[in-house]
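Milestone M4 deliverable, item 7.
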Amino acid sequence: MANTLGSVSNGKAIAQRALTILVDRFPFLTQGVTDFSDVPARKGDVITTHLVSVGTASAYDTTNGYVANDRTQTDKTISLSNLIHSTISIRDDEKASSQINLIERFAASAAYAVGKSMVDSVLANITSGNFTSTLTVAAGALTYRGVTSLGYTLDNSKVPSVNRFAVVSPDNYASLLNDSSIVANAQLNADKIGTGRIGLVNNINVFNYTALPSAVSKGFAAQQEALLVAARLPEVPENFPGLVENVTEPESGLSMQMREWFNPNLGQTFRSYIILFGTGVGSGSSLVRLV
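Output delivered:
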């Protein structure tokens, strides 16, 4: 099947742009505990990350000075079980037949495909068995008061107040945007009306996602240590007959690999944008499901 394309652009530039779009479109992907690296790995490799307990502050002791407080570090393992890609092919006759901006077109397509796969894998960890805490809210009826209740529920579970976020369904997101406590408050409003991005509410960074799984179809609120995601670059096959470029999104540290090769028999150039990743459950008390 023929593509509708513009002139062929640099594959690395497309990969870099795709990563930027991915993080922008799925910002909550980086809200959990992330272990991103550009170190090569193989599918099935196991990554060990860590959850560190909240410490306490102590007064200076005139006899013993600065006495160290103990910390508890819990090891969590994540299997890099997901090798995902977004691959395109471009025929020779397509390369010179159009002026469409390939960087934007393919970056957006690759970003959505790869990003949605990662997000869906992370959210699949949110089950009633992994996270038992709930808050009842009618569909499409989430308000400022409800977000406050989510924060209160996390407080009751002794969850740290920093790095909290919520991902809610479109109808609940719309309900928040229609809540005068949020959009009519000069201190809270900022650019919410213009951008449609809610941002911080009661110290919880609120996001919207259109494909929440059934266990959290209304949404959830969590602290950073509830969900885990690790990503690496795949190893390059030996004697790979083409070009390999690795790119990294600087803010998140997430890396993507671009592979390009040409099939002379077909007269086609192939490009794959690839990420190797795994997800897991962190602290079971650090997430509240809306039901």
